[in-house]
Amino acid sequence: MNLESFIRDIPDWPKPGIVFKDITPLLKDAGALAMAVELMANPFRGKRIDCVAGAESRGFIFGTAIAQSLSAGFIPIRKPKKLPHETHSIEYGLEYGTDTLEIHTDAVSSGQTVLMVDDLLATGGTMSACCDLIEKLGGNIVGVAVLIELAELAGRKKFKPYGQIHAVIQG
Fold first, then answer.
1. Total-model pTM
2. Which of 38, 56, 95, 135 is catalytic?
3. Cβ distance 108 to 138 under 8 Å?
4. pLDDT digits (tens, 9 = 90+) for 72-130
């Protein structure tokens, strides 16, 4: 199955010059979704992963499925004022502006191993912010898994210290 055929490009969204990778056709197809989750999780099987962390919202889709597949917990990293307990927050840059993410202060115990998951790795801004939040709580990041990597933007360079960086599709 060619997973790339389930991803459509949306030019000039959310602003001119950006080509958005729309994964909703992949999510709609049961076989494509199952294959994407398996291909993202497989390199991390047999490794001691305590938790999978994913950022709102597409990181939740793949992160919870991968956590279940690896028999690990899931840590949601959310937009501001969405988590009900005490949080840490971080502001970070995007290709098209800035954003803020938050995590519960008790989401990770010191020394827990965490796999970071998202749908897309571009410049690495969102994933870097997520990694910073996990490390602030004492988590040990053991890898990064994404469905799509935009290799020409070189976001991968930021994650070399975190072990294996796995992308299913190079776009």
1. 0.95
2. 95
3. yes
4. 999 999 999 999 999 999 999 876 678 999 999 999 999 999 999 999 999 899 999 99
Is 156 a catalytic site residue?
no
Per the listing, tokens 């060619």 go with 2
Give the active site residue among 58, 78, 102, 149.
Answer: 58
Q: Does 56 qualify as catalytic in the annotation?
A: no
Both tokens assigned to 146 = 């994404």
Q: 1-52, pLDDT tens digit by residue?
A: 999 999 999 999 988 988 999 999 999 999 999 999 999 999 999 999 999 9
Q: Characterize 131-162 residue by residue with b for buried, 16 or more Cβ atoms within 10 angstroms of its Cβ, and e for exposed.
A: bebbeebebebbbbbbbbbbeeeebbebbeeb
